[in-house]
Amino acid sequence: DFMQASWDIEEVQAKGIQHLASFVKDKSAFPCLLKCTEVITGAMKTHIDSLELHREGCTLLLEILSQALEQGVMMALDECVASCLLHTVRKHSENEEFLSSLCTLLMMVSASEVAAENLRKVGIIPDLLSILRRFLHNDEICFSCCAVLWSLAVSENSGDQAVLGSAVPVISAVLQKHLQNGVIAESACSALWALSLQGCVTESDCEPTAALLLDALRMNPERVVLVKNGCLALASLVRLSETAALAILLDSKGSGIELIKDEYHLHFDEPGVAEALCLLMKEMVQYDEVMLDMRSQKMEKLLSEIKLQFPFS
Fold it and tell me: Rounded CA gap, 217 and 213, in Å?
């Protein structure tokens, strides 16, 4: 109440945020802190020039959201809060250190479908892409932004397809740069899957994107989520274009079919991986030339193995 009554006085807002932060360790205070998110973001929006207030506000919001996720509480932050976060991103678009924390906050916020939709509505996608282009070297920013874009693509409506289409080359650049970092590669593969599902990958991008996804699978074969989402992304690309299917067959770094077999045998007890691989093969056999090649490489044997392993799925 004190912060709201003196919303225009920066020192009051800063002291208020500091005082609220002192309750973070007190579990009984959590329900009350949950109600303070709009007051915190309101202070950040009103005092847009105060980096220190923004830092402390962002840190406190991260603490509150972390506790919420731990307790299974989904915080559906409204459009006003989303707008405030966008203003904060724009104000500090050059501050790499602060953006790292801010992008982590956006990732946690976007876990809620409602909040992700509100972030999309206020137009945050171009800003995320701009941040990725500028800070392609920053692991934390790349991981967080790809995760946010995945959430936004999953919740997007057709009106944003053109905006999301411009994300494909940026996410591909992230994946290319961080192929050996399994955490970032997994986040980027998931984002590419969501974008391909929305039909945002152009015909000309299908082949290079498929080749890049195969590289990610080769470099990170042990990561279950990456393998599953990478195969689902490949299946979406193959559904869009035969060139993607041919890229899998004729990849210059080795047979994509052999890679599929290797991935299944590595994760033979993971139903999610088996299902993704089956979906990929189902999309590939719609093309006669590709199906003949798959037959010659004894794919029936692999399908029989999967059927035996998961007889009731």
Answer: 6
